[in-house]
Design brief:
The protein is of the alpha+beta class. 30% of the residues lie in helices and 28% in strands. It has helices at 2-6, 10-23, 30-37, 41-53, 95-104, 152-170, 228-232, 238-250, 258-266; strands at 58-61, 64-67, 86-92, 111-118, 136-142, 175-177, 181-184, 187-199, 202-212, 272-277, 282-290, 296-299, 305-308, 312-318. The strands form three sheets. Strands 3-4-5-9-8-7-6 form a seven-stranded mixed sheet, sandwiched between helices. A five-stranded antiparallel sheet has the order 13-12-11-10-14, with no helix packed on it. The longest helix is centred in the middle third of the chain and has 19 residues, at 152-170.
């Protein structure tokens, strides 16, 4: 099945066939598709057969082929114009591990590694990230022209772009939580990890691992989590989220210092009582701001300000507006 779907040139052909089927209100003739694509009717038949085997509901009759439903797929050919950079796997231990391997081998920037499921998906501090069917799990490989000291901005940029994409697409009140989560009504919808390698003072590659609860049900294992399906009362197409996120990332410059201001506008952490847990200590206080390096500035009870660069952030009581 993998070769039938993703072999050289095949993803582009399937993108074109799906575009024809989706743009038509009725059946599309096989000979008509073959003529438009410059291939034989037998080739069209083989591509249609492979799409059916992949799970697409395609009816065939005297009038041609008809796509009964769009489905919820994130195969490379679902992303017209991006197929060559998108790599899909039914199951991986971790998209971050696979993306690291590919980055070290010189894969191009904007490479995306997607897994239908992860067997060893992880969150921050090496915690397990439940990665069952229906969620969206991927890693984006970036090669920004950035000093290593500014690499953190890419994580903030990803949080902002994904938060805005979710708001635009679904209308949910998504907000960013320091350092790398997206919440809705204080429940976790998205987790983002970053991993970087440098050459001298510059970033060689920077990988962003993203887990989004879309059509899965994580609550049984993570009571403080939520999925889009639960929020919206119906399934939501995962490909729309990834497409919108990638589009926003393309026009976002992680080197732009204004990305920190954009993050502040979407933050549900600032102005909150927080408890920060690090491997060495716990710090309690009010989250006052983030600095240009992405560190959280926490004002403690004695009015001193602690600069936090790493740790878990637990929200506590919302402070009254001043």
């Amino acid at each position: 099945m993998v070769n039938k779907l993703f072999g050289k040139g095949l993803a582009f052909m399937k993108s074109a066939i799906l575009a024809m089927l989706r743009s038509s209100d009725g059946p599309v003739s096989g000979p008509g598709m073959a003529k438009s694509l410059g291939v034989s009717r037998v080739a069209v038949f083989k591509h249609i057969k492979a799409l059916k085997e992949a799970g697409y509901e395609i009816d065939s009759g005297p009038g041609g082929y008809f796509l009964k439903s769009w489905g919820d797929f994130v195969y490379p050919f679902e992303f017209s114009g991006r197929q060559k950079n998108i790599h899909y796997f039914e199951s991986l231990e971790s998209t971050m591990d696979k993306a690291r391997e590919m980055a070290r081998q010189g894969c191009p920037p904007k490479t995306v590694v997607i897994a239908g499921q992860q067997t060893r998906g992880r969150g921050r501090l090496s915690r397990k990230w439940l990665s069952d069917a229906g969620g969206l799990y991927f890693t984006l490989v970036l090669r920004p022209t950035l000093p290593v000291a500014l690499a953190h901005r890419a994580l903030f940029a990803a949080s902002v772009c994904l938060c805005r994409a979710l708001r635009d697409l679904t209308g949910v009140a998504a907000m960013v939580k320091w350092p790398n989560d997206i919440l809705v009504d204080e429940k976790k919808l998205v987790g983002i990890l970053s991993e970087m390698a440098g050459e001298g003072d510059l970033v060689s590659y920077l990988n962003l691992g993203v887990g989004i609860n879309v059509n899965n049900s994580p609550q049984a294992f993570e009571p403080k989590s939520v999925s889009l399906k639960e929020l919206l009362g119906k399934p939501f197409p995962r490909r729309n989220i990834l497409e919108a996120f990638l589009e926003k990332m393309e026009v976002c410059d992680p080197a732009d210092a204004n990305i920190i201001d954009d993050w502040r506008e979407l933050s549900c952490t600032l102005g909150r009582k927080v408890l920060i847990q690090t491997p060495r200590q716990q710090i309690e206080g009010s989250a006052r701001d983030v600095d240009t390096d992405g560190a959280l500035l926490v004002e403690k009870a004695d009015k001193t300000v602690e600069r936090i660069t790493y740790g878990d952030c637990l929200h506590q009581i919302l402070e009254p507006q001043k």
